[in-house]
Design brief:
- Helix content is 44%, strand content 9%.
- With 246 residues, the chain is an alpha+beta fold.
- The chain has one domain.
- Strand 1 and strand 2 form a beta hairpin.
């Protein structure tokens, strides 16, 4: 695996071809309508979308999951897919959605006094409140781990950058900085499953399997400069754009 710096950029190693697609295309996508129509999820979808709109200063007419995926792509494009900047801006979106007095109270009442219970509560809230974004999940490991079966956001975005810099790293940072809860998110790029492990610190990026990975063949950003035969154009003759750069 290619090593990466703290900025999520490649440090060296061999170029890896874009081969992975995630779950087999023969498998039908799950039906998420029941999640999208849930009253709590309708509220959360609206909150996230309006926060993204405020960040981008770009209003949208319709409200829904597809609009959130589109806005997340726009956010990364606006900042030229710079991993550190994108992470900070996404974390600010989370602060907009969940900000105010709630994180302060949670950190002081739960995280600092009863950390194990705070980790369990965070896992339960994630399990309930994220199904519209990531799909079905289950609680395991003493109710401190959320196992996502097949991440809806990763599949819809088709992009490792979207996963790592638009979800994983800013979510880990927000939980630690604002809520006082350690969190390690472990995506599986082969089947789109994922684990949210509360109470566990994320490893250094140089040791994190999520980094140094090539993006998906279907990534809308990473494939822009690909020729019709699948080879790279001259603009991509530099080392393969890894996690922070697609």
């Amino acid at each position: 695996m290619m090593m990466v710096s703290s900025e999520g950029r490649a440090l060296g190693g061999s170029v890896t071809a874009r081969q992975r697609r995630g779950p087999p295309t023969s498998l039908p996508k799950p039906d998420y309508s029941e999640y999208d129509e849930n009253i709590l999820n309708v509220f959360l979808i609206s909150r996230f979308q309006r926060a993204l709109e405020r960040e981008l200063v770009v209003p949208t007419e319709d409200v829904g999951f597809d609009q959130i995926v589109s806005l997340s792509h726009s956010l990364r494009s606006r900042y030229n897919h710079d991993p550190l900047v994108v992470r900070r801006r996404v974390e600010s979106v989370f602060s907009d959605v969940f900000g105010g007095v709630l994180p302060v109270l949670y950190k002081s009442i739960f995280s600092e006094k009863i950390p194990r219970i705070s980790e369990q509560l965070a896992a339960i809230a994630t399990s309930i409140g994220s199904q519209w974004l990531m799909g079905p999940n289950k609680l395991t490991t003493q109710m401190r781990t959320v196992e996502i079966e097949r991440c809806r956001f990763l599949e819809a975005s088709g992009c490792v950058n979207a996963c790592v810099n638009g979800c994983k790293k800013p979510t880990e940072a927000f939980m630690s900085n604002a809520m006082g809860v350690d969190l390690y998110i472990e995506p599986n790029y082969e089947d789109f499953s994922c684990k949210f492990q509360f109470g566990q610190k994320p490893p250094p990026e140089s040791d994190d399997p999520a980094f140094g990975e090539p993006c998906f063949l279907q990534c809308p950003t990473a494939t822009r400069a690909m020729k019709s035969d699948g080879t790279q154009t001259e603009s991509e003759n530099a080392p393969f754009p890894q996690t922070g750069d697609c």
